[in-house]
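[agent] plan:
  1. take the single chain provided in the ticket
  2. run structure prediction with default settings
  3. attach structure tokens to the ticket
  4. add a short note for the reviewer (M.T.)
[agent] executing step 1
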Amino acid sequence: MFLSRRQIIKNTVQLTGLGITSSIVPMPLFAQNLNYGPKEGLARLHWNENYYGPSERAIEAINTSSFKGAYYPDHLVDFLKSMIAEYNEIDTSNIAISAGSTQALTILSQFSGRKGTVLASELTYDTHLNFAKNSGARIIRVKDNQDLSIDLKSIESLSKNNVSAVFIVNPNNPSGMMIEPNILRETIKRISQKTLVVIDEAYNEVSSDPEKNTMIDLVRDGYNVAISRTFSKIYGLAGQRVGYMIGQPDVINGIKSNGAGEASLSMAGVSAAIASYQDKDFMNFSRTMINEAKEMVQKGLTSNGLSYIPSETNFIFVNLDQIDANDFRDEMLKQNILIRGKYGEFHNWSRVSMGKLSDVQRYIDALPIALSNLSA
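[agent] step 2 finished; step 3 output follows
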């Protein structure tokens, strides 16, 4: 079918707004119709972004640093490391900065996979694990408990058998569940006697008690533990791609020697991270808005007869009962609301991110329409 220039432009705008690109889109037309965020009218509630960011401090840093964009940001990377080290009472040798936490997690999972089996829970964030699997690593996914919580006992038991690394996301994605800190801490201490334990804390700062919930103290105490963090969530810097890993020097050196890591960072991203790192006012504001959105969604789900898992993150995992999550996603998209589809074999569970309150309200208003159409 022949496409007119007008239709190509229309399709380009739609693809860009959905976060989708294609090599068939002509570059000149793509450039003329560039969107820096969701297209107008689209509620983008599928990637767990913080739509209230970047903070004013971060924006100022991005703008100022852009005039020095001709230079590599090595000195700023070192400065950011020093900030993180000072705050957590560790040494800069315990820190690797990366292009989002996924990059460091991917490098770590790949070189861990070359040493032995990698262990993780069944329902969890797994982009880095899939990269490792495609590189030849053996990944064992441990079935979750009936309530979808991570089965720590089974993970600990399996970790004794030629396992090179255990990956745990806390709070977990997509369930939003938090493992009780003391239980997790004692379990990590035991597992780390035999193998590396990696805790992905991407949503730690979103949780109700970040200092209580973090496991960074185990690194400080010398345990074989690595903690990943990101500036993509609470800081609202997903598009700037900055994250970091905290671990023992041998783990940090392994990350640096097995991937681009710090050579992948941009001047604007690192500058924004520095400006954001101790911006408590913005973090508290973001947490307040996220919690308000969660309360709205929870009430909306309950009024429409849907259950959900209480969340310590900026998203909610919704039980659709007999409805397929992909069908529900497609039905919501008809109303210009973008959410996640199914995860693996969890066909009837749907994840929705907390966005601007106006977009969250649109999700709530669309619920009865989507549910009615799928029940017809």
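[agent] step 4 note for reviewer: Residues 1-23 have pLDDT under 50 and may be disordered.
[agent] ticket updated
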